[in-house]
């Protein structure tokens, strides 16, 4: 991707929405542990987990909620049960999160130009509130959307769509910045352009199958 393309993507934008872990902070969430513990909890609660094996943690919650009636539970009960597990893994990651190089500068530059900023994350609200205090991010965003604000986490576009609605802007005037294939799928579903930060990772097959509008190495390169 060329530098002129990066500049063109930002021109005319009224808001930039960011993913959190892997984008603004380093990756510390123990996905494997959370999935394993969730599957064990579901089995102990009477769920058949055969069809849930190998699912991403975000899709695991959705599909378990859809199967809630099979065990005599409501989808909300299942959501709370799994959410409690994810909250603990959020807290664990929070103890190690640190800002990516250039994160604070990128946010400050956007806001100095009158561009709105929002966070759309699969992390829970409790951990995000503590992270904002710890990392001094409270004044850096106009709003944030956590997994507690939506029915479906990314790769669903629900969170991005909600943020756009709350910012009172058109989707054509919003840009999403993330680091994963789920971020690309969420942005596409919401109808917004997306920039992916690859860091030191090589773009995987998902990026080739569903490429972003631009690919950068870090947030310093963003602006």
Note the main attributes of this structure.
223 residues; alpha/beta; 6-stranded parallel beta sheet; 11% strand
List the helices and strands and how they pair.
Layout: H1 3-10, E1 15-18, H2 31-44, H3 57-66, H4 75-94, H5 103-112, E2 116-120, H6 125-134, E3 143-145, H7 158-167, E4 174-178, H8 181-190, E5 193-197, H9 205-209, E6 214-216
Parallel strand pairs: 1-2, 1-4, 2-3, 4-5, 5-6
Helix pairs in contact: 2-4, 3-4, 4-6, 7-8
Q: Helical percent range? A: 40-55%
Distance between the termini: 14 Å
Side by side, the strands of the main sheet go 3-2-1-4-5-6
* Overall mean confidence score, pLDDT: 91
- Name the beta content range: 5-15%
Number of strands: 6
Written description of the protein model:
The chain has 223 residues and is of the alpha/beta class. 43% of the residues lie in helices and 11% in strands. It has helices spanning 3-10, 31-44, 57-66, 75-94, 103-112, 125-134, 158-167, 181-190, 205-209, and strands spanning 15-18, 116-120, 143-145, 174-178, 193-197, 214-216. It has a six-stranded parallel beta sheet, with helices on both faces. Strand 5 (193-197), helix 9 (205-209) and strand 6 (214-216) form a beta-alpha-beta unit. Helix 2 runs antiparallel to helix 4 (75-94) and helix 7 (158-167) packs across helix 8 (181-190). The longest helix has 20 residues, at 75-94. It is globular and about 55 Å long. The mean pLDDT is 91.
């Amino acid at each position: 991707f060329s530098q002129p393309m990066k500049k063109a993507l930002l021109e005319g934008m009224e808001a930039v929405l960011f993913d959190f872990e892997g984008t603004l902070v380093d990756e510390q969430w123990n996905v494997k542990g959370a999935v394993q513990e969730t599957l064990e909890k579901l089995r102990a609660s009477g769920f058949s987990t055969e069809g849930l094996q190998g699912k991403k943690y975000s899709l695991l919650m959705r599909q378990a909620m859809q199967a809630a009636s099979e065990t005599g539970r409501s989808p909300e009960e299942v959501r709370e049960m799994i959410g409690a597990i994810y909250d603990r893994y959020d807290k664990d990651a929070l103890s190690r999160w640190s800002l990516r190089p250039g994160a604070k500068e990128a946010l400050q530059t956007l806001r100095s130009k009158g561009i709105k900023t929002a966070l759309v994350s699969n992390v829970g609200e409790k951990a995000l509130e503590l992270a904002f205090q710890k990392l001094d991010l409270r004044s850096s965003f106009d709003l944030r959307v956590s997994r507690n604000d939506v029915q479906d986490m990314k790769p669903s576009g629900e969170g991005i769509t909600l943020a756009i609605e709350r910012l009172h802007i058109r989707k054509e005037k919003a840009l999403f910045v993330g680091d994963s294939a789920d971020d690309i799928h969420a942005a596409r579903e919401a109808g917004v352009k997306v920039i992916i930060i690859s860091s030191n990772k090589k773009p995987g097959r998902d990026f080739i199958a569903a490429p972003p509008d631009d690919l950068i190495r870090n947030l310093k390169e963003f602006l």
